[in-house]
Design a protein that fits this description.
This protein is an alpha+beta fold. The structure holds zinc ion.
Amino acid sequence: MFGPSELMHRCLRGRGRGGVARSLVIFASWLSLTLCVSAFVLWIRSYFHQDDLMQVFWLEQRGEERTYYVSSWFGEFSVATHFVKVPPADWRRFVESAGTSPGLYNFGQPINADERREIPMSLAQRFGFPYRFGVSRRVAAALGGVGRVEIQRAWAPLWLFTLMFAILPSSRLIGRLRLKRRSRHGLCPTCGYDLRGSPNACPECGIKRDTSQTAVKKPGQSRRTWRSRS
Ligand SMILES: [Zn+2]
């Protein structure tokens, strides 16, 4: 058995800088795929459940309540801060009227049918189209008329995250499929030119076959057996 650092060392040994870069791209595209699927699931879920991950801090000495949260709701993902400034004399009254306590909350509140009907949205808006994203900052009276609350909120549609995280894995998949199709048909992996008549180099783009490395494939070596002329 060996630890994580030894494992990493074994993975990187025998690979050049290109091998390490390739490993990073593979890792990034799997991570991106995971995030893509998660964003998609959250997008669909957000029409049925509201999820908030929030942390409330009560700083009594400074007369402040600070809340940080991320939420998903009706196709939107948002990050927000909620700062309440309370005069020291009113702190006790504020705490009593707040109805919350400091800590971490993770809600999965169901959005009921009535609530859904009440939201004045077109069908397109209900599914996050046309998208809505931006940043808002407002100041209002805090709970129980005590203190002032400053709210900052940034939001973006969840489908946008789904799409964004799909770019890397799908482009890699398309690249792999194209390479596979070209090698099966005896075409140049770079430009797709028919190479059946010219086995050593591509007359179209100049890429040449690295014959010294095609016979014996060393472990960890790139799957590509083609090298550009440069
Ligand atoms: Zn070519």
